[in-house]
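I trust your eye. Have a critical look at both lines of this record:
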Amino acid sequence: MGFNQKINDSMNNMSRSVTTQMMKDAPPDLTYVYIGAIDEKTRPFCLEAAAQGALTEEQILGLGGEYAESLVSGGGINCRHNWELASDDIQSQFHRGGEAQKIIEAKPPVNILSPKMAGKHKTVVDAKFWAENNISRKVRFDKNDISVDDLNEINKSIMKTIKDNGLPLLDEIGWQNEVYKTTQNTAFLLRHVFDDKDTIYKMGFNKTAIKSWKKRRDISYRTYGEANRWGIGHGSLESVVRHEVGHYAYYRKANVRKKWVKEMDNLRATTPSREVYEMTRKVSQYSLESKSELFAEIHSGVMIGKEASIPKPLLEMYYRALGG
């Protein structure tokens, strides 16, 4: 840490200490706002805190340890942010009060990390921040190699399954590594990686494949089954992502795999094999590959609003397996 940085941190922390002490002596209903620069250097936490708007001291502390620490150290080393009183008499009570007053009077900032922002970001940097906080522990996309539209579509497609089913964050999403490129030349996109010791859930994307599927996304298909005739999904990036997230739910959500296998065994024991074949084929040709591929294809169909095209017995089995 440089000398100037040490001085800046010391001065900022002293300012925060004064504010924190005044909070303790002030009425409990007073509210505070997190102010400071918002730019490409701003930490994800500081972006989130700035978007919270006016909060009481109790509300700040109630948001967890990182918020409690921000009262005395901001977002960390070299942080340019701090909490300031949000009230009509800011000017007379607090330093930098005018800046805090402008935040209060302005339109409330958008919280770019909110789950509601899935698929709505304006820059790749913001979309990556969001992904790292909502769907994956690590995101390996270079901002120069993926468009914000594609990343938004990926984020939105993964988000709903993870949140609706209470699934943990993926270990990683990003471009496929060299191993994938040599062993999965024909695979479009997402593959789960299973380690011998621990189960690791990664989703690797192939740049060329994304481009080719984007070209097909506007092709009109008469039926859902016809759309799936040549493989996963119905000709859109969204449906392929949702297919692979279906695999994630299948393996990661408690007992789904076991329930689905049991459902399939019961169906085959009580239904003529030809009928089972025709029902499966109506979902997609690719569904005939395995029990898990059928589940993933049904999941994709449900997520993109194609429930009506999925045979009722299979749809009911899908919801029972998920516990719904």
Q: What stands out?
A: The first helix runs from residue 3 to 25. Residues 90-95, 179-191, 218-233 have pLDDT under 50 and may be disordered. The two ends are 53 Å apart (CA to CA). The longest strand covers residues 31-35.
